[in-house]
């Protein structure tokens, strides 16, 4: 069984989807720990409600940087929790060497676009502003870039005429919640000897 650690900054609906897939048996895993850089993030409340251990990362007052020391502490916490795969779920800081080296090719991310198109924040707004005809969702392995790294799974979504960014984001999230657990299973199977 896979032992997951989840990092998120916001509402944690993807964490919830992963948990739901575990509950139904669709994903053979357990969530050992949930970590957030925001003490008030809903993702932590969701973890607490489900009796999942959680902790707040101390990013030393930095608004968007993920200092090396905080990454090293995060790696230690994940290791002590026995985590073998780390899932970023709406985590808004760039992961670099201290954490990447502790979990080589063992950190996944979900992003609401068909990468490499529209990396970075609010990808659904970027897609609408660019008048794109389609976008989608990508699950990928994390490297030191911004939403780069080997692709695991993508699903396309046609953008409707006059669709607002908010409406598009809602439809993208439905896809996210369905494909993240699938992508975790697919990736974990690919790692088996
Ligand atoms: C999702 O749209 C995800 O793709 C992006 O951030 C959002 C997080 O949502 N990286 P949630 O916290 O999982 O609800």
Whole-number radius of gyration?
16 Å
- Label the CATH architecture: 3-Layer(aba) Sandwich
Q: H/E series, N to C?
A: EHEHEHEHEHEEH
Please give the largest β-sheet: 7 strands, mixed
- Named CATH topology: Rossmann fold
Rough outline: globular
Spans of 5+ residues with little confidence (pLDDT < 50)?
none
User: What's the rounded overall pLDDT mean?
Assistant: 97
Count every helix, treating DSSP H or I runs of 4 or more residues as helices.
6
What is the domain total for the residues?
A: 1
For the largest beta sheet, what order do the strands appear in spatially? Answer: 3-2-1-4-5-6-7
Helix content: 25-40%
Query: Under the CATH scheme, which class?
Result: Alpha Beta
- Through-space gap between termini: 15 Å
Strand content: 15-25%
Q: What small molecules does the structure contain?
A: 5-O-phosphono-beta-D-ribofuranosylamine
Number of strands: 7
Describe the protein in words.
This protein is of the alpha/beta class. It has a single domain (2-109, 139-154, 180-191), classed as Formyl transferase, N-terminal domain (Rossmann fold), CATH 3.40.50.170. 38% of the residues lie in helices and 22% in strands. The protein is built from 6 helices and 7 strands, in the order E-H-E-H-E-H-E-H-E-H-E-E-H. The chain has a 7-stranded mixed β-sheet. Bound molecules: 5-O-phosphono-beta-D-ribofuranosylamine. 5-O-phosphono-beta-D-ribofuranosylamine (GRF) binds next to helix 1, strand 5 and helix 6.
Protein traits:
193 residues, alpha/beta, Rossmann fold, seven-stranded mixed beta sheet, 38% helix, 22% strand, binds 5-O-phosphono-beta-D-ribofuranosylamine
């Amino acid at each position: 069984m896979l032992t997951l650690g989840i990092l998120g900054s916001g509402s944690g609906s993807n964490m919830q989807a992963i948990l739901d897939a575990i509950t139904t048996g669709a994903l053979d895993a357990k969530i050992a720990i949930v970590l957030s850089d925001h003490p008030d993030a809903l993702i932590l409340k969701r973890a607490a409600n489900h009796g999942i251990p959680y902790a707040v990362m101390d990013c030393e007052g930095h608004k968007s940087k993920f200092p090396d020391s905080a990454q090293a502490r995060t790696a230690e916490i994940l290791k002590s929790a026995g985590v073998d795969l780390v899932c970023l779920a709406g985590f808004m800081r760039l992961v670099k060497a201290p954490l990447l080296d502790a979990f080589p090719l063992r950190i996944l991310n979900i992003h609401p676009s068909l990468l490499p198109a529209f990396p970075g924040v609010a990808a659904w707004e970027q897609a609408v502003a660019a008048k794109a005809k389609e976008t989608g969702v990508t699950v990928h392995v994390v490297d030191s870039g911004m939403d780069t790294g080997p692709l695991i799974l993508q699903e396309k979504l046609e953008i409707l005429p006059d669709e607002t960014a908010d409406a598009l984001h809602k439809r993208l999230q439905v896809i996210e919640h369905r494909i993240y657990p699938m992508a975790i299973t697919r990736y974990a199977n690919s790692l088996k000897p």
